[in-house]
Amino acid sequence: MKLLVLGTKGQLGMCLSDQLIITEYEVFYTTRAEIDICDFVSLNQMIRQIAPDIVVNTTAYTEVDTAEAEPEKAGLVNHLAVAKIAEICTDIGAVLIHISTDYVFDGKASAPYKEGDQTNPQGVYGKTKLLGDLAINQSGCKYLIIRTSWVFSEYGQNFMKTMLRLGAERDELNIVADQIGCPTYGQDIAKTIVSVIPRLAINNIDSGIYHYCGDKSCSWFEFAEAIFAQATNSGFKPPDFLKPITTAEYPTPASRPAYSVLDCSKTLNEFGISPSDWREGIQEVLYKMKNIK
């Protein structure tokens, strides 16, 4: 069976490469230089040439604030290119695994969001990601959309790595304490994808959306506290003081959902996959970063 991974150099793409080091599948890892998803002619030619059974799309425009000033660019990557990938998958009979986001919700809920709950994205990033999801659904291809949140890992740019960098540079950090979500370790998302592939191979999964995120909700401030509690024991310099602040005290171009906790019970019941233990994920990232040094 052939797998095509789009976006190998991104955070999730690199995690997926780690998880597929030992595999019986024929895996094609592609970077933007090899397959530019925004070049539809080349995209079509390359995917058809590879003729994969499963396409895993880990590419995305994820700069939430920058997207407000670049809606067309965000829309091209998160919506139009995704629609084209889904169209090609329909034509060649490939299954599409696509990564989506908690930002498709408005954050006004008081209980974890289920897959079928009303979407209402508040910013360009969330809106373009939702349009991509809808395009996949309307394409007719067989698909799995995995919605996740607050992704961190040893790769790329993410909240945990930013905290470690700023903690080494500053004595005090102000961290938003009134936005609640679920941190998710990127390697756990990759493991989830690898776990469902055998079911896809035997056509034993219905197309649909599945939520996968961390097992415990927290605020960004609490996430930072957990990071530095473990980082200190691993030899990383923490700031002297963490100050909790409100969203109003830290204005950003894009609106963030105040509450974006995802209900992962469907994923657990369907696949037997438990939510990400993000505290263990923190420990794994620290271990890998320390050894890389």
Low-pLDDT ranges: none
Please write the string of helix (H) and strand (E) elements.
Answer: EHEHEHEHEEHEEEHEEHEHH
What is the fourth-level CATH superfamily of the domain at 2-157 and 183-214 and 261-276?
Answer: NAD(P)-binding Rossmann-like Domain
Strand content: 15-25%
How many individual β-strands?
Answer: 12
Head-to-tail CA distance between termini: 37 Å
At the first level of CATH, the class of the domain at 2-157 and 183-214 and 261-276 is Alpha Beta
Q: Which class best fits the helix and strand makeup?
A: alpha/beta
Would you tell me the overall average pLDDT?
94
Write down the CATH topology of the domain at 2-157 and 183-214 and 261-276.
Rossmann fold
Order of strands side by side in the largest beta sheet?
Answer: 2-1-3-4-5-10
State the CATH architecture of the domain at 2-157 and 183-214 and 261-276.
3-Layer(aba) Sandwich
The major pleated sheet works out as: 6 strands, parallel
Tell me the number of helical segments per DSSP (H or I, 4 or more residues long).
9
Residue share in helices?
A: 40-55%
How would you summarize what this structure contains?
This protein is of the alpha/beta class.
Description:
- It is a single chain.
- The longest helix is centred in the first third of the chain and has 22 residues, at 71-92.
- This protein has 293 residues and is α/β, with parallel strands linked by helices.
- It has helices spanning 11-19, 40-50, 71-92, 124-139, 159-169, 186-201, 220-233, 265-271, 278-292; strands at 2-6, 26-30, 54-57, 95-101, 142-148, 151-152, 172-176, 180-181, 184-185, 208-211, 218-219, 241-245.
- The protein has nine helices and twelve strands.
- It is globular.
- Strand 1 (2-6), helix 1 (11-19) and strand 2 (26-30) form a beta-alpha-beta unit.
- The chain has a domain at 2-157 and 183-214 and 261-276: NAD(P)-binding Rossmann-like Domain (Rossmann fold, 3-Layer(aba) Sandwich), CATH 3.40.50.720.
- Helix 1 packs across helix 6 and helix 5 packs across helix 7.
- The strands form four sheets. A six-stranded parallel sheet has the order 2-1-3-4-5-10, with helices on both faces. Strands 6-9 form a two-stranded parallel sheet.
- The mean pLDDT is 94.
